[in-house]
Model the fold of this input.
Amino acid sequence: MEEKIIYLDNAATSFPKPEEVYKFMDFFYRNFGVNPGRSGYDLCMEAGKVVEDTRKLLTKFFNGRDPNRLCFSYNSTDALNLIIFGILKEGDHAITTTLEHNSVLRPLYHLYKFNGVEVDYVPFDSKGFVDPDDFKKRFKKNTKLVIVNHASNVLGTIQPIKEIGRYCREKGITFAIDASQTAGKIPIDVEEMNVDIVAFTGHKSLMGPTGIGGLYVREGIEIRHTRAGGTGVRSALRTHLEEYPYRLEYGTINTLGVAGLNAGVKWIEEKGIKNIYEYEMKLTKMLVDGLKEIKGVRLYCQDSLENHISVLSFNVEGIEAMNTGIMLDVDYNIACRTGLHCAPLVHEQLETDKIKGAVRFSVGPFNTEEEIKTAINAVKEIAESRSKK
Done:
């Protein structure tokens, strides 16, 4: 019998999913797997109802006001591209951070290189946090967008979104957050946190499948069209529709993904987002405390777990991250992520880019204390094997 894998790569995608997600996706696709919103027959209406119910569910989940401004995309990268290319144009200025994922860094660099958009990058401090005042100091007359990673996918640090958003609101600057790592893990209240746009993906902490994500756009914030296509509504128009959600949705959406996302959010609400977070952080504390005791292991920005999610990165002295990951996989059946984690500026600031990145453990709601103990022991044995050479 094959040994069960210890999955510590939940920051890449949560796995396994709740049983309710698998069951509802199967039920939905077998019974209502048609194109929603295109016709008036019963199956089409039922499929459309699940889509609209999920819009309402997620709008409430983020404490938004208008479900029509909850637009589906393929993932957070897709949503972030819609935001960045739909807001910035030549001569504009944007502010972001060195904590960002390439889903923000690359679109911004493209606009800098080819469209004359100026971009400032706020660095993080020794504990892994950005200072809201650093944004305020960088505001210019042409600053049109501030976009920040809500929680780092490398360090696990939760950024002071509310304070940054307050400064942006005072200046009338659009403030967007990349909630890839936080949506479903910690509460997000767009009103209370002064957020104009939240981009999310379904396949991480929202417990849905891959291929579905989206964005919520606050009233008064407009995003230009960067695409055009079918909506199933007012087909005689030559231009793409202006109203939301059609403004930012193109072609047939991933209805199976929406169904899975629907079930994932309901599972989170049933379990309680606070309960899930506290359980994950209990395991993360075990992991951090255990790794700190191992000679030759270096953790990054883990002095305190306050304002953290269940993500941490480390290295074993004298061993490249990739090789540590291979040993964890082959010898201990532990799945984790190694390298630069699609966040190169984090590693440049930590100087881990010079040693090809770090090892990342990310805890999910289905991990156990026994698995965490096994992971700690595995890293200990790897570190000890190196010291004996």
